[in-house]
Every structure is written in structure tokens, then in C-alpha cells.
Amino acid sequence: MGTGSRKEYSQMPRQCTSSRACFLRQTGLQEGHAQKKSDISEKTKRLNELKLSMVSLKEAQESLKSKIADSPKKVEICKEKMKGTVQKLRNARQEVMEKTEVYRDSVECLPSCQLEVQLYQKKIQDLADNREKLSSTLKENLNLEDQIESDSSELKKLKTEENSLKRLLIVKKEKLATTRFRINKKQEDMKQYKQTVIEYGPDAGLGLRTHKESREAFKVKNSASSDYDVIILSGFFRLFVWDCNKVQDKRGAVCEQVTTITLEIQKIKSGVQQLKDSTKREKLKSQEIFVNLKSALEKYHEGIEATTKEYCSRIEEKTAELKKRMFRVPPSSA
Question: Keyword set for this entry (predicted)?
Fold first, then answer.
């Protein structure tokens, strides 16, 4: 290759890049030219439309001018009507604005009213809960009163039983006293009889002779009838011992009955005392519960009345204020 061909070969990439740039530039210019053409066509179209609208407006203006020239009185009447309608529209707009303000105030008051309603609902729920508690406590109080009545009736029964046992004990004590008196009398009689028999012989105890005669007979028969006296005396002693044992057995049985009766009376007395104490405690407890319930119920009713009056007054004030705002007469604007 020669030097000329080498130079041409080295300049070929530069020529290619420049031709590509020219091509891109040419395409860009063509696109811009097409865009300009489309814009011009749109503007001409818009201009034609505006021209047509101008022509129509001119025609309308001409027709209106002819109408104005034909009847100026009608124009004045239309103007007056338009002024009246404008005034009415202004008044209506003012009224709408005022009602809007009233509604806005009522809407602003709505959350507070909702809170008050929620508070009322909560208070109603508290009232229902307290009513249930009160009914349960009243039922408990009635149960306690029934229990007190049953305990009092049982106490009366025990008192009557105690009185009957006391009467029975008195009768038993009287019988025991009479038996003791009889036993003592028999013992004294036996001692006296024994002494007379020992001193004066067996016939002295039969009451057939006087004391002096018995003494003389004893002196006469002392030596002859000593064996006979011993036999009779031993028989009398045996009879006396048998009577004493019998009386002692009866006395032991009576003492056992008396001790059992006294133990039963003591048990009944302790049971009665326990019942009295328990009834007293239950009565005091029920009285305390009743007093507490009464005071709590009175306070609760007073609180309900106070809150009801307060909220009724608030509701009346708010309803009156809302009525004033709703039915307020709008000022007539000139």
C-alpha cells in the first residue's frame, strides 16, 4: 500500500461517525418539523374554531342589540328580576351559612354529648350491678332473719324443755328429800328400837308395856331368857340391815337419776347459752349489715338524685341552646 491509501483508510472512521451524527441530526430535524407542522395545524384549527365562535357571538350580539333596541322596558324588568334573584340568593346564602355554623357547633358538641351518653350508660350499668348486689344482700338478710327466727323458735323450745326439766328436778328433789326424811326417821326409829331392845329386852320394842314395866321385866328375865334375846336381836339386826341396804340401793338409784338429770340440765343450759350467743352474734351481724345497707342505699339514692338533677339541667340547657341556634331568625341583608 501507498501512503495515500493509508491516509484514506485512517480517515474512514471519522467520516463514518460524522455521517452518523448528520443522520441523527437530520432525523431530529425532521421530527421537529413534523411536530411543528402538527402544532400549526392544531393552532389553525383552533383559530378557525375561534373565528366561528366570534361569528356566532357577533350574531348573538347583533340579535341582543336588536332586542335591546326593540324593548328597553323588558330589559329593565329583567334587571329588576335579576336584582331580586341576586338578593334572594344572597339571603339564602346567608341563611345557609348561619345554618352551617349551627350545624358545625352541634357537630362540635356531639363528642361531649357522646361522652355524656357513655357516662350515663356506665352509671346505668353501675346501677344495675348495685341493684343486683342489693338484691343478693337483701336475700342474705332474709336468710339470716329466717335463721334467727328458727334459732329463736328452737331457743323457745329449749327454754320450755329446760323449764319442764327444772320442774322435774324440783319434783325429784322433793321426792329425794321425802325419801331422805323417811330414811332418817327409819334410822332413828331403828336406833331407838335397838337401844331399847338392848337395854330392856325384845318385848320393850313392841309397845305392850311402859318403860318402867319393861325395865322391871328385863331385870326379872335377864338371866333366864338371854339366849332367846340374842336370837330375836340377831333377827332384828338382819331385818334392819336388809332395810338399810334396800334404802341405800334406792338412794343410789335416785342419786344416779338426779346426777343424770343435772348433767342433762347442764348440757341443755350450755346448749341454750351457745344458741343465745350465736343468735346474739347473728342478730348483731344482721343488724350491722342492715344498717350498712340502709346507709349505703340512702347515699346511693342521694347520689342518683343529685346526678339525675344535674344531668337533666345540663340536657335542658343544651337543648334550649340548640333550639335557639336552630330556630334563630337570620338578619335581613339589604
Answer: Coiled coil
The cell for 305 is 338524685
Q: For residue range 249-284, what is the model confidence (pLDDT) as tens digits?
A: 777 777 777 788 778 778 877 877 887 787 788 878
- Residue 204 burial by Cβ neighbours in a 10 Å radius (0-12, 13-18, 19+): buried
d(CA 73, CA 57): 24
- Indicate the Cα dihedral angle 173, 178, 181, 183, nearest 10°: -100
Whole domain around residue 195: which residue ranges? 96-326
The residue with cell 339470716 is 144
Is 26 domain-assigned?
A: no
State the cell numbers at 114: 357522646
The number of distinct structural domains making up the chain is 1
Q: Which of 41-45, 49-53, 186-190 has the lowest mean pLDDT?
A: 186-190
Compute the distance between CA of residue 67 and CA of residue 63 in angstroms, rounded to an integer.
6
Residue pair 154/275 in contact by the 8 Å Cβ criterion:
yes
- Rounded to two decimals, the pTM is 0.32
Count CB atoms within 10 A of the CB of residue 78.
11
> Rounded CA gap, 244 and 238, in Å?
10
Helix (H) or strand (E) holding 135: helix 72-200
